[in-house]
């Protein structure tokens, strides 16, 4: 899942981003509304965590632009205004959910995950193929009954390959969905991660490289 944090309080924005990355999410950060709109125009996000009182372009206008674009990104609006009329107004702009500051980080994570499930087709309780079983909720992977410890990025790559259900997934798609905008598009990170993932899954090999196209699980 890829998330954009649009929040002008830099310490808060960076703290949210760090916490969500620890949840194996790909996270980008924008510190004003104009930067948020720029990133939304370039990248495909599942969830936008949007501070309502953004500078340059107000959060309300960012929310309107997201709704008018007709995309699938879900909006979690953050605000210091706790009164009911403010919450109703935020939701009427097209926000999918509303969270009042200060908030418990665990609640924000739960809401982001819930919105992410709405932004894409729901995963089954267990992703399985070729003897691999991946539990998205518990972030656990088993190969032929053997537990396989994976890093966050290895888990994210494997999840995307399993979701493709045998179709080829390009390195560019993996970079888009598993990493964030700071990754060098010419990096060999995907290839290195794939090598480590294959090693951990063990023989026989199930991840196939399709030359010039990408990867798939046979």
Automatic annotation (TrEMBL):
InterPro entries cross-referenced by the UniProt entry: CheY-like_superfamily (IPR011006), OmpR/PhoB-type_DNA-bd (IPR001867), Sig_transdc_resp-reg_receiver (IPR001789), WalR-like (IPR039420), WH-like_DNA-bd_sf (IPR036388)
BP GO annotations: regulation of DNA-templated transcription
Modified residues (4-aspartylphosphate): 51
GO molecular function, one term: transcription cis-regulatory region binding
GO-annotated cellular components: cytosol; protein-DNA complex
Annotated ranges, domain Response regulatory: 2-116
Keyword terms of this UniProt record: DNA-binding, Phosphoprotein
Top-rank taxon, per record: Bacteria
UniProt cross-references to Pfam families, sorted A to Z: Response_reg, Trans_reg_C
Protein name, UniProt field: DNA-binding response OmpR family regulator
Domain called OmpR/PhoB-type: residue spans: 124-218
Residue ranges of the annotated DNA-binding region, renumbered to this chain: 124-218
């Amino acid at each position: 899942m890829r998330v954009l944090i649009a929040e002008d309080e830099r310490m808060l924005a960076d703290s949210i981003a760090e916490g969500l990355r620890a949840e194996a999410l790909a996270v980008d950060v924008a510190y004003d509304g104009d930067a948020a709109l720029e990133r939304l125009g370039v990248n495909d996000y599942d969830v936008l965590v949007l501070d309502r009182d953004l500078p340059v372009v107000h959060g309300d206008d960012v929310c309107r632009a997201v709704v008018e674009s007709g995309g699938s990104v879900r909006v979690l609006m953050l605000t210091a205004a706790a009164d009911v009329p403010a919450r109703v107004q935020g939701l009427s702009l097209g926000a999918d959910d509303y969270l009042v500051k200060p908030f418990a980080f665990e609640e924000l994570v739960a809401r982001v995950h819930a919105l992410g499930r709405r932004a894409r087709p729901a995963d089954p309780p267990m992703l399985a193929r070729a003897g691999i079983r991946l539990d998205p909720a518990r972030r656990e992977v088993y190969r032929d009954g053997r537990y396989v410890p994976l890093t966050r990025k290895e888990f994210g790559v494997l999840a995307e390959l399993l979701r493709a259900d045998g179709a080829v997934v390009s390195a560019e798609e993996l970079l888009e969905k598993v990493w964030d905008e700071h990754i060098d598009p010419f990096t060999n990170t995907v290839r290195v991660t794939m090598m480590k993932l294959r090693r951990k899954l063990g023989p026989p090999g199930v991840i196939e490289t399709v030359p010039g196209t990408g990867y798939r699980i046979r």
